[in-house]
Amino acid sequence: MDPREYTFTVFTPTYNRAHLLPRVYNSLKRQTFTDFEWLVIDDGSTDNTEELIIRWQKEAHFPIRYIKQSHGHKKVAHNRAVREAKGKFFLPFDSDDECVPHALERFIYHWESIPADQRDEFTGITVHCMDENGQIIGDLFPSEKYFDSNSLDIFYQYCIRGEKWGFHRIDVLRKYPFPENIPGYVPESIIWKAIARTYKTRFVNEALRIYHTGHTNRIMTPHSVKPDSAGYYILMEQILNEETHYFRYRPFYFIKIAINWTRLGLHSKLLSWKNFLQKNSLSRILIIITFPIGFILAKSEK
Q1: Does 221 fall in a domain?
Q2: Residues 6+ positions from 290 with CB-CB distance below 8 Å
Q3: Which residues constitute the domain of residue 255?
Q4: CA distances from 36 to 50, 108, 205 (A)
Q5: pTM exceeds cut of 0.85
Q6: Is 166 helix (H, G, I), strand (E, B) or coil?
Q7: Number of domains comprising the chain
Q8: Are residues 206 and 111 in the same domain?
């Protein structure tokens, strides 16, 4: 079967969020663009999530697929969804948020605005989020209409901050799975950074997602972010190995990363001279200079 049966797979990971899922469902019911499926990965909920989804499957005018798994964190739910997706584009949609009725319509419009012979260079479209009062959250992108770049340049060179929302091509995501061998929580930016090194994104100054404050999505965030998190150590390792050419834009950020590489490495017991020697010259210098600080912090947190 061709995995691209739909234009979009809208993916919602959830864990005991039955009281908030109607917000997502009602947003999808109102969409003006209807060529999509809703894929819900239930990460071991003990509430009435399954009962709710079964009822919606019977009444919805769009396909809803529901997969329940043992609790395995966001990394496992995401990888499962990417494998199962039948859409050309993959759009994560948290279990506690909503979007405007024309969100999918605008996403496909912006994608098709990219010249056909250039689309292979792009992974997807990213837009803004707004709060419940309609105010855009965070900074606008540099261009009035759209800006073609990647998320690394956006973060380092242009210093764009704030909640964003977007989709990726499913064929791109399947090349970059979350590492499931790392215990506990794995930061999503490990994947997004890896994609940004190869593919461009079209950033559009348009707000399509409504971000609700006051709720923490427990599958998206670690239950307790501890200093010995191996996932965060791997992220620090990745930044030092791959991103120091941005040092001139944010030097103090990289100093902080180097400190935390030592600190988290000692906590997680993953720190090794072998890893240290694989780094580029600038990273090694940063680690040598900041090692005493990271060491002291690690010892003080035991």
Answers
A1: no
A2: 255, 258, 259, 262
A3: 230-300
A4: 21, 11, 24
A5: yes
A6: strand
A7: 2
A8: yes
